[in-house]
Specification:
mainly beta; Jelly Rolls; 2 domains; 6-stranded antiparallel beta sheet
């Protein structure tokens, strides 16, 4: 009887989500923003709780759980540590091997980016497996980029069917204590539009305006973690090449952005690189221009970005007061192959006074042939 009730609850939640989508943008489309009960504010019934542990598979409205999942109240204590919650008053904690999942009504063939907030507790090498079949990636969350302990992460996928399951799982290899599992909160989604290249800019999404959803009430941006080069980046076609470190996607509402509404902060020093591959003509000369500055987030001191492509390389220093501002950088190079990688990397490791990582902001990157650039100047 209980299993039947759980299945009915799950079906009702899926049906509610589809109805919302039908009212907003059609049955096959999702609405950008917070997922249904994406912040876990709709609580499980007390009959399906054992202390903080959720006992019913469909007990959390709009979610399906597996394994040891706890329902956490903001301010709850874990030893000497107080567990905060970034969105509302509730979050969930995943024990070893535990997962939460939600079904999404999507458009087949379309790319989407998922944003969610996560915090590690006492496990030092925490990771999360994020899956929308057949796409799957392991996201490292051991590095903390905010003073609150919570960071927002992004991940992208291409929908293969009209209804897909978003699954986030704690692989459970970091600690035997289930209480050391990661906390999760605030799941949102955004439809990604295919960035276009044109004669004025060979770099697609050079202004970084197309990217993952940023929660309007959070001031810490969204991390874009490293990924397999065959995957689809939330900042497509930009890739983040690293072993465990991320870059931060920031908005003009909370940061100083050189142009437009979005930019990228290189918060991991030389441990992560922002990369895009473009088609070039061997032997032809090219010019790339870009902005380097600080995000007015208190990241003061000597900042510097190194950009390189083919045999060309330039270092653009920027002395920051931590209150905003930027300068333009220029890189001239001659292509050696039909495909050329454009790379941005932070030269230094920078920290704010509170000890959190920060770095230079990169924005408004453009690439044209030297011949096209010369014609513009005429």
């Amino acid at each position: 009887m209980r299993r039947y009730t759980e299945m009915v609850q799950g079906s009702r939640c899926i049906a509610m989500f589809v109805l919302v989508c039908m009212a907003a943008r059609g049955a096959s489309a999702i609405t950008d923003g917070l997922l249904p009960n994406g912040n876990f504010e709709q609580a499980p019934s007390k009959s399906e709780m054992n202390g903080t542990r959720v006992t019913g598979r469909y007990a959390i409205p709009c979610w399906e759980i597996a394994g040891s999942v706890e329902y956490i109240v903001s301010g709850q204590n874990q030893g000497d540590m107080v567990l905060p919650v970034p969105e509302g008053a509730y979050a969930v904690r995943l024990g070893n091997g535990a997962s939460v999942q939600q079904q999404l009504s999507v458009t087949p063939g379309t790319h989407y980016s998922v944003t969610f907030s996560a915090a590690r507790t006492c496990a030092q090498a925490a990771k999360l497996d994020v899956t929308v079949a057949p796409d799957s990636d392991e996201l490292p969350i051991q590095t903390v980029y905010t003073s609150s302990g919570w960071d927002s992460y992004s991940w992208a996928f291409q929908a293969k069917d009209g209804v897909v399951s978003l699954v986030v799982r704690n692989p459970g290899v970091t600690d035997e204590d289930a209480a050391c599992g990661p906390l999760l909160d605030a799941f949102a989604v955004r439809t990604l539009l295919p960035p276009q290249r044109n004669a004025d800019n060979m770099l697609a999404n050079g202004d970084f305006e197309e990217g993952p959803y940023i929660f309007p009430n959070t001031a810490w941006g969204v991390l874009v973690p490293p990924m397999d080069e065959d995957g689809y980046s939330p900042l497509h076609p930009w890739m983040i090449l690293s072993t465990t470190k991320s870059v931060k996607y920031v908005d003009a509402a909370h940061y100083a952005v050189p142009r437009g509404a979005r930019a990228v902060e290189l918060v991991s020093g030389a441990e992560s690189a922002l990369v895009q591959e473009v088609g070039t003509v061997p032997g032809r000369a090219y010019r790339m221009e870009f902005s380097v500055g600080d995000g007015a987030d208190g990241c003061a001191g000597s900042l510097a970005v190194e950009a390189y492509a083919a045999s060309g390389r330039v270092k653009v220093p920027y002395e920051s007061s931590g209150t905003g501002g930027y300068k333009r950088g220029v890189l001239d190079f001659t292509a050696a192959e039909e495909r050329t990688r454009v790379v941005f990397v932070s030269v230094y490791y920078n920290m704010k006074p509170d000890g959190t990582l920060c770095g230079p902001v990169v924005d408004d990157a453009s690439l044209v042939s030297a011949e096209s650039h010369a014609r513009r100047l005429l």
